[in-house]
Structure formats: C-alpha cells, structure tokens
C-alpha cells in the first residue's frame, strides 16, 4: 500500500512537471514568432529549474534532521500554490532588435519559476523518504525513478492527443492547478506515513544506512570524484542529443510540426527502461545495437542520403534512443548507496542542465550550423562501455589514434584523387567501398576510443563531400539556420530556412525580377495579382514574412508596401544586393518593420491596407498565433472596405485550409482556396522545357493559398476562376483561437 502511495505521488508529480512545461511554452510561443528555439530555451530553463529543485532536495536531506522535516516539502508546495494559476499577463513585449533569450528566461522565472522548482524536488525527496520506511522494497528505491519518468512520458504523450484538442489554455491552466493541489495532498499523506513509521518504530533505525547490507552508509565525501564526473557526463550526452537530434531533423531533414515531442518521449522512455526492475535489459545488447545504428547513421550522413523523410526520421531517432538508453543504463548501473541518493540525482540533473545549456545557449553562438549534434554523437561513442587499460596500453592508444586517421585520409582522398563521389548512389564501386567502410568501423565497436574516432572520420568526411551548389551565406540565430546557395542549373540564388525554400531569384538579367518558387506568375499568387494588381486593393499592402522579398515584385510604382519580419538575419539577407535584389530594385521600394507581425500590425491605423498577405514561416511551420480567430479579427480591423486577406498555407504536414474555413465561417467571411500542385520539378515539365530551349527545373514550386474577404462580392475578381474553390466550414469542428489550437487534428492525411 505504501509503495502504491509513493508510486502514484511520484507519477503525478512528474506528469505535472511536463504538463506545465507544455502549457507555459505554448503561452509564450506566439510573441516569439513560433521559433523552435523557443522550445529549446524553455527546455534549458526547465532543466536548470529541475537542478535547483534537486539541490533543494539534497540540501534538506543533508542539513535537516528530525521526523518533522518531512512536512517541509508539503508546506512549500502549498506556499507555491499561492502563485497559481500561471499567467503571462504583464510581462511586456520582447525586444525586436536584440536576442530574445534573456526576456524569455525572465518571463519563465516570473510565470512558473517557484512552483516548478518546489515541484521538481518531489521525486528525489519521496525516494529518500521511501528508503526510510525499512520495507523490503525500500532497500533499493531507485525503481521509483522509473515511475517518475513514466509519469512524464504519459503527460507528454497525452498532451497533443488528449489535452490540447479538448481543452483551451485557460482550462488546461485550471486543470493543472487542481492537479497541483492534489499532489500537495498526496505528498502530505506520504510525509505522514514516514512520520508515523518513524514514531512507531524508532528503534528500527529506519535510516537508509541500516536498510540493506549492500546499501551501506558512506561518508558524504567518499563517492569518488571520477564517478561523480561520469554521472554528469553520462547525463550530459542524452540531454544534448535530445535537443541536437530535434534541431537536426527539423532543419536538415524536414520540419514536421510538434516533432520535438517524439525525441523527448524517447528520452523519457530510456530513463524508464534503464531504472525499471521488471525486465532486465542486457547492456551488451544495447551496446551492439548502438554500434550498428551509429555506423548506419554515419554512412547515411557521409553519402548524404536525402530520400523519403520517414526512413531518415526513424534512423536518427533509433540511434538517439539506443544511445540515450545505453548512457542511462550506465547511470543506473553506477548508482550509489541510498545514502547518496539525492546527491546522485543532483549530479545527474547537473549533466542534463549542462547538455541543454550547451545546445540552446552556446551552440547557436559558436556554430553556424547544427554542429553540436555530430560532436555529441562522437562523444557518445567514446563513452561506450568497455574502456579498459591493459599493460599494452601504449599499443592500444597508437591503434586507437592511427587507424581512424588512416580511415579519414581514405574517406577524403577517394573523391579527391579517383573522382568517385560518396553521394553517387548509382555507382557499384562506391557502394562496395561504403559497405567496406561500414564494416571496418563496426569492427572497432569493442574499443570505444577507436570506434568513436572512426565515427568521427565518417562524419567529418560527410562535411567535405562534393556539393554542386555554392554556399554563399550560412547564418544561425535564435530563429533557426539560414543559408543562401548559388544553384547552377538553372542559375539561381536560393534561400533556405532549414530544408524549406524561402525564395529564389534568377541570375538571368532578363528574368531577374520575375517571381519564382511559390510566388510564380502562373501560380495562385501570380494569378491573384494578375486580376487585382495595380488597383486600389494593392495601393497599400502589408506582407507578413519577408523571405527574399520576392512578393515585392508584384507592386506597381507609387504603391506603398510594408513587410513585417521577425528575424533580423532574414532582413540582412534580403537587403544584401549580392544575394537578392528584389527589395532594392522592385518598384514599390518597400518599408521593412522588424518584430512580431501581429504586435506590429496592432499598432497600425485601422483601415490602413487594401491587402494583407500572411507569408510567415519558421522553416516549414506556420506560426499558429497568426492564423487564429483573434488574429483574423485584427487583420479585418486594419483592412479597408473591399480589401483582401491572403494566406500562404503551403505545408508538407498540415492541412490548414479547413482551419481557415472554420475561422472565416465563424466570422461570416467569404473565402476561396487554390491548391496548385503544378511544379517545374516534375519530369514531364523538365522534358517540355528542355525541348523548347527554356530554362528548366526548380523555378516553380507547388503552393497553396487562401483568400479571405468580408463579403463574396469582394472576391469577384477571382470568382469566375474555377481553380479558386469556395471554402466552407465543417459542422461541429472547433475554431482555432488564441486559447485553443489542435495541430494533431490538422495533420494532413
């Protein structure tokens, strides 16, 4: 019964920790443009807050004595409840022209800091209390850590599938507050059990020092320093990889919405499996699986495989999960006697916090790309179990260093001196060599240093691979990774945010100012401007999202266009004439306003614009706060009579047309939708272009657009074009608001 009480309390506390992380992150996401870095920064804050909670738990166990000290924690939980429910009101706005991370961290401290820190102390404290009970199961209380992480896992899995689709943010906040009060009661009951047990059986010596002969008291300073360091490093690696794999996959493979949920669930699952005691998982099996997956991943990066996204997702996630599991199995194996339980958890949380700080705060400053991910992959391989120094250690060290160096020289030298290309999937010779490389590196698996350096050789070779595109600019900041490449056929400059194209410009002087990609004259936006361009509708235009500035080429002389852009790096790229000249040379000479578009538009005069174009993307993700019912009401207030609101909703993962249909229907607006599947990337189009002698491929991308107006007559210019289909709301579907959205429900089928 006591085991059940403590297990339920730990499960509830851990679930609340992750539930509030998601709620607060969603509250703060809109004012920062929906960047994935918002989540990474929030993760760092919560990891540091978790560390402070563990520090409080360790200090209270070490410094306080007596049976009544167990009631300190319930009292602090109750005191922190006075700051609930969580609110972001009164925080002010983040800076538009400076790094928003300090503002975000300050906002998190104010909104949720004290309750989270106290809540974070629950897990180590309850495990330490449980160890004092003197029961058989309390002799090794570390299994409760599995229950704790299981609670986190359940909260994380249920949020996007059960909580978010059915509860508004206000209701989520209220529900979390009620659950927090329930946890306070459960914690008080647990404290009462400990107090009663020690009062009734004071002679039993219900200290963890007397519980089991294998779990004996040790002086506070007897844990070896190297063991402490190993706990920290083994916790650092999975924490860093958690953010690293998320950033890599959302920028270098595909930008799936809510993709961070899956790595985090796998991270928590690795803790559960490592600390549970129901089924023994052989560490050697995990080690072999990690070696195999690491080699496969390194070979994939070397050969620059870029086929279907799903197999790449699975490979990266599998390698991450098995690596995290291996590290956490080592942490569990090296756990100390229960006398050092709180110190152990404190140092594990130090490693987790350092991993988050390295990825979210240091890496964006130090690296222009996502270099932290491969670096920590190599570190994970170096930490594999099996490192042993023998009498012939000198020969070991020589082999561990020289063989990977020879491997690197081979990987770099083959394409340079033989003309072979590691990325050529059609070459039989290349395929044979790649297989041989994989077998050689896998053969290093029993020797961690040699294996880690061998993986490093393959990963380094992947960065030196042949690339037909010339990299012109590569920049990374809070809002993501941007790069501009010079494409040869046809000659273009292309802007990428992650793997998503954000605009292109032809280098042909005759076609330099022709809109390309999603904005092609033959696409929905081009056809819309063909009918309304140069009219009173386009006399004053607001465009949310700058990109390369392509849309400005639809302006006419004398018109006033204003672009709203949150990312300073995008503004710098669009204004650099060596990269793109749309902003410089297009007729309207548009103004650019830096900052969150919704906040900036709110300051504009009512009825200021004849057209508002929403073209804001963070890689492939559209900031949700720009397409809620309240946001559309704001656009309507800034729109003159007869004006148009134009949404660019092209997306590989979300079907957003029904979302806009419901919003328009709820406000009594008219809406039309055109999903243009035509792209010059198609083989048939390529052949046709080649036969006619025209420039071919990659000049037009498939795109999807929605036009919204106050009345059907305002859409008369496109009403007779059957490609623009009327958009109707669905009965019974909940409308997206600032307080409610359902990304899972919007996933494209």
Automatic annotation (TrEMBL):
Entry keyword Transmembrane helix: yes
InterPro entries: SAM-dependent_MTases_sf
UniProt KW keywords: Membrane, Polyamine biosynthesis, Transmembrane, Transmembrane helix
Record field: transmembrane: 35-56, 68-91, 103-130, 142-163, 175-195, 231-249, 255-275, 284-303, 309-326, 338-358, 395-415, 427-446
GO annotation, biological process: polyamine biosynthetic process
Location of the region described as Disordered in the Swiss-Prot/TrEMBL record: 678-703
Bias (Acidic residues) ranges: 678-687
Highest taxon of source: Bacteria
Protein name: Spermidine synthase
Organism, scientific name: Aliidongia dinghuensis
């Amino acid at each position: 019964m006591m085991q059940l009480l403590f297990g339920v309390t730990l499960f509830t506390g851990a679930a609340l920790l992750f539930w509030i992380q998601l709620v607060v992150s969603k509250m703060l996401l809109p004012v920062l443009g929906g960047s994935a870095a918002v989540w990474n920064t929030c993760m760092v804050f919560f990891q540091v807050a978790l560390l402070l909670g563990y520090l409080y738990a360790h200090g209270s166990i070490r410094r306080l004595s007596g049976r009544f000290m167990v009631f300190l924690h319930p009292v602090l939980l109750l005191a922190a409840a006075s700051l609930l429910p969580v609110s972001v009101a009164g925080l002010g706005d983040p800076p538009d022209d400076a790094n928003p991370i300090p503002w975000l961290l300050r906002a998190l401290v104010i909104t949720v800091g004290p309750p989270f820190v106290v809540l974070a102390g629950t897990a180590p404290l309850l495990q330490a209390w449980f160890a004092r009970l003197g029961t058989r199961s309390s002799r090794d209380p570390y299994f409760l850590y599995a229950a704790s992480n299981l609670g986190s896992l359940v909260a994380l899995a249920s949020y996007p599938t059960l909580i978010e689709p059915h509860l508004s943010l206000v209701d989520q906040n209220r529900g979390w507050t009620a659950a927090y009060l329930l946890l306070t009661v459960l914690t008080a009951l647990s404290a009462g059990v400990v107090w009663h047990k020690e009062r009734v059986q004071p002679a039993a010596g219900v200290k963890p020092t007397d519980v089991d002969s294998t779990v004996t008291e040790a002086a506070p300073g007897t844990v070896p320093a190297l063991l402490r360091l190993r706990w920290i490093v083994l916790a650092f690696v999975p924490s860093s990889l958690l953010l690293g794999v998320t950033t890599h996959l959302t920028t270098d493979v595909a930008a799936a919405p809510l993709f961070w949920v899956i790595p985090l669930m796998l991270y928590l699952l690795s803790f559960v499996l490592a600390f549970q005691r129901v089924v023994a998982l052989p560490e050697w099996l995990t080690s072999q699986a990690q070696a195999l997956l690491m080699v496969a991943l390194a070979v994939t990066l070397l050969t620059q495989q870029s086929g279907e996204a799903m197999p790449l997702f699975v490979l990266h996630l599998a390698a991450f999960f098995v690596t995290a599991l291996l590290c956490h199995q080592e942490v569990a194996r090296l756990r100390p006697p229960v006398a050092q339980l709180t110190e152990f958890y404190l140092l594990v949380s130090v490693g987790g916090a350092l991993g988050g700080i390295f990825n979210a705060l240091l890496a964006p400053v130090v690296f222009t790309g996502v270099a932290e991910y491969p670096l920590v992959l190599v570190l994970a391989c170096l930490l594999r179990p099996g490192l042993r120094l023998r009498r012939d250690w000198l020969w070991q060290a020589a082999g561990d260093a020289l063989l990977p160096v020879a491997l690197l020289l081979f990987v770099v030298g083959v394409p340079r001196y033989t003309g072979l290309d590691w990325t050529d999937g059609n070459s039989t010779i290349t395929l044979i060599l790649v297989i041989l490389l994989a077998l050689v590196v896998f053969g290093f698996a029993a020797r961690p240093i040699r294996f880690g350096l061998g993986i490093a050789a393959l990963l380094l070779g992947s960065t030196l691979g042949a690339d037909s595109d010339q990299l012109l600019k590569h920049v990374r900041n809070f809002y993501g990774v941007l790069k501009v490449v010079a494409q040869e056929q046809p000659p273009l400059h292309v802007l990428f945010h992650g793997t998503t194209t954000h605009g292109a410009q032809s280098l042909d002087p005759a076609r330099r100012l022709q809109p390309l990609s999603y904005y092609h004259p033959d696409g929905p936006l081009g056809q819309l401007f063909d009918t309304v361009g140069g009219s009173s509708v386009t006399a004053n235009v607001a465009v949310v999202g700058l990109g390369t500035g392509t849309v400005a080429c639809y302006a006419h002389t004398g018109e006033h266009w204003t672009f709203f852009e949150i990312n300073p790096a995008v503004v710098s790229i669009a204004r650099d004439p060596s990269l793109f000249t749309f902003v410089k040379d297009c007729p309207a000479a548009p103004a650019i306003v830096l900052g969150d578009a919704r906040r900036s538009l709110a300051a504009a005069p009512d009825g200021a614009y004849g057209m508002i174009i929403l073209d804001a993307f963070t890689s492939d993700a559209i900031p949700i706060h720009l397409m809620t019912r309240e946001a559309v009401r704001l656009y309507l207030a800034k729109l003159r009579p007869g004006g148009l609101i134009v949404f660019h909703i092209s997306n590989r993962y979300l079907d957003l047309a029904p979302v806009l249909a419901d919003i328009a229907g709820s406000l009594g607006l008219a809406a039309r939708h055109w999903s243009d599947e035509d792209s010059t990337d198609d083989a048939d189009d390529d052949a046709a272009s080649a036969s006619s002698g025209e420039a071919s491929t990659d000049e037009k991308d498939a795109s999807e657009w929605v036009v919204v107006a106050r009345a059907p007559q305002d859409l008369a210019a496109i009403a007779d074009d059957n490609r623009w289909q009327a958009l109707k709301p669905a009965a019974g579907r909940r409308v997206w608001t600032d307080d409610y959205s359902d990304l899972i429900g919007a996933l494209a089928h």
